[in-house]
Design a protein that fits this description.
Structural class: alpha+beta
Number of strands: 6
Strand content: 35-45%
Largest sheet: 6 strands, mixed
Shape: globular
Helix content: 10-25%
Length: 140
């Protein structure tokens, strides 16, 4: 998570604390509880930890969809197609409507997710801008 926060600090105002670490990720522990609305995935390649994904099920009276809360692949393993393959596997694990968003300042994430979602959905997705975020909506 510290590596993810380091990368993400390029796009948001996030600094290390006096102990040299980024602040703890809020509610990270809830992804490992018996909750049916949060799902955590540790990504490995050749028995090495290379990333993670955090997925949320948003269920309200108005909406019911999955959201990719966080997604991270270590730099060394990027551009090998691993992120794309993992994202598609996660979409298949959680069937239904998805909303995947990226901060407007995070252009690399926007390029990645638009490409992955376009491939996965065969171009059958919509996109909107809201509160400084680009959001893709599609069904898995």
């Amino acid at each position: 998570m510290q590596f993810y926060m380091y990368d993400f600090s390029s796009f948001v105002s996030l600094d290390v604390t006096e102990n040299g670490l980024f602040p703890p990720y809020l509610q990270l522990d809830t992804y490992w509880q018996e909750d049916k609305t949060r799902f955590s995935y540790i990504i490995q390649k050749d028995d090495k930890y290379i990333g993670f994904a955090l997925v949320r099920l948003i269920a309200t009276e108005e909406k019911h969809h999955y959201s990719m809360a966080e997604f991270f692949i270590l730099r060394r393993y990027r551009r090998e197609g691993l992120g794309t393959a993992i994202a598609k596997q996660i979409f298949n694990l959680h069937q239904g409507q998805w909303e995947v968003f990226q901060k407007e300042s995070n252009e690399p994430a926007q390029v990645f997710w638009k490409k992955v979602i376009n491939e996965y959905s065969s171009g059958n997705f919509t996109e909107r801008f809201e509160d400084g975020k680009r959001i893709q909506i599609f069904n898995s």
